[in-house]
Design goal:
binds magnesium ion; elongated; about 400 residues; binds adenosine-5'-triphosphate
Length: about 400
């Protein structure tokens, strides 16, 4: 009877602590909450948790409850640096919950009360990894019995799993942060490279072909009366050079439309539609709002590149007869929408589409994320495709007077 009562009580304590761990949002909250419960439910005077860093082999105080005044004083200075329990844990000699570990910290802090110079310790271990230690200061004369120690070990394991999970989560978040930063640099570098190549083509190749055209014109004029056949051939070659210059201009504009840098997003969209979409024979509905001036350069670039990829996809894949393009401002959002009435596709794709190394749709999403926006791809076979980008506009400083 006595035994089952103890077991039931321990089960309740354990459940209560597991609950705290599960519902906490941060590691700090989880450790604080669990430690408060342990101190309260196990009749303990004080408690603290050190986290262990495997790489630096150092301990850091992560939570504490009812620390004796002398340990809490001076910003908890006495809680830094090594103590016996830390050393035992580091050396792998503390593998289970124990009742009494002599503590130099307590000895120094409470010289008047030698009965409080020891604490119980519970190693926090999960999957053979030691992640910290839970120390509990018991009232004089109190010691945990074997059942309580076993329960504390289980609690220690739960705490260790929570700590491991939080560290993993942090690591993933850091990786995501690094990935985003790399992607951002890559895209900025890509834009710069495109700008440089466009400039080179314009300044060098463009000039050479222009000079070639002028010289061909002159030659054709010079030989025109003497050799009609040669003049006709020269004009034909000039026609080819003209065509090449046109293609080169398109390439330059495609690489980095000067109109985007010089005049901004809306004129760049209009120019692109006139140059590429209308000539392709599509019925175009273009609706662009006045965005109230220029937007930050990276936002204009992201918006334009998403628009450009969406339109290119329509021309390449959709077999559409109609395209609807919108660039508008909705509250604090810049909306870019490209909708076609073409063949559509399955945006989630089957396993075979996951393998394909296409970058367009992926790149749209990446670019949008870089400015904290998003891209929605709505499509189904036979019903056309809508690409909807939502990009946050810069927050206007209310203190700045309206222009
Ligand atoms: N508007 C659209 N209509 C029909 N199918 C589309 C449309 N947009 C995309 N798709 C389909 O989705 C696929 C992936 O598009 P995505 O832009 O990622 O790659 P891509 O255009 O094939 O190559 P790239 O990497 O050069 O952009 C396309 O190959 C096409 O099958
Ligand atoms: Mg594409």
């Amino acid at each position: 009877m006595e035994r089952s009562f103890t077991e039931a009580r321990q089960m309740l304590i354990f459940r209560g602590i597991a609950e705290v761990l599960n519902r906490s949002f941060t590691l700090r909250e989880a450790l604080d909450g669990a430690l408060h419960r342990i101190v309260e439910l196990l009749d303990v005077q004080a408690g603290w948790i050190f986290l262990y860093d495997q790489e630096t082999r150092e301990f850091r105080l992560a939570a504490d409850v009812n620390l004796p005044g002398a340990l809490a004083a001076a910003g908890k200075r006495r809680m830094t640096g090594d103590c016996r329990c830390n050393q035992l844990l580091r050396e792998g000699r503390l593998t289970e919950a124990v009742n009494l570990i002599p503590c130099a910290r307590l000895e120094q802090a409470l010289p008047e009360t030698p009965e409080l110079h020891r604490h119980a310790s519970v190693p926090l271990i999960a999957q053979d990894e030691t992640v910290g230690i839970l120390n509990l200061l018991l009232p004089h004369g109190r010691a945990f019995n074997a059942d309580e120690l076993a329960m504390l070990e289980s609690i220690g394991h739960e705490l260790a799993v929570t700590i491991q999970r939080a560290r993993l989560f942090d690591a993933v978040r850091n990786q995501e942060h690094v990935r985003r930063e790399l992607m951002q640099r890559l895209l900025v570098a890509q834009e710069e490279e495109r700008r440089r190549i466009a400039q080179d083509f314009h300044d060098h190749s463009g000039q050479i072909v222009t000079a070639l055209i002028i010289q061909l014109d002159q030659l054709a004029a010079d030989v025109g009366s003497k050799n009609k056949q040669l003049a006709a051939d020269l004009r034909r070659v000039r026609g080819l050079a003209d065509q090449f210059l046109d293609d080169l201009r398109k390439l330059i504009y495609d690489l980095r439309p000067p109109v985007l840098d010089d005049l901004g997003l809306v004129p760049a969209v209009r120019w692109y539609v006139d140059s590429y979409v209308r000539p392709a024979g599509l019925d175009v509905e273009l609706q662009v709002d006045d965005l109230g001036g220029r937007l930050p350069q990276d936002l204009e670039t992201v918006a334009f590149r998403i628009f450009q990829e969406a339109v290119t996809n329509v021309l390449r894949h959709a077999r559409a007869s109609r395209i609807e393009i919108r660039v508008s401002r909705k509250g604090e959002w810049l909306i870019v929408m490209v909708r076609d009435n073409g063949v559509g596709f399955d945006p989630d794709g089957g396993p075979e589409s996951q393998d394909r190394r296409t970058l367009g749709l992926h790149g749209m999403r990446e670019r949008a994320q870089l400015v904290d926006g998003s891209v929605q791809i709505l499509s189904a076979n036979g019903v056309g495709t809508t690409i909807l980008a939502r990009l946050p506009l810069p927050v206007l400083d209310s203190a700045t007077p309206a222009q």
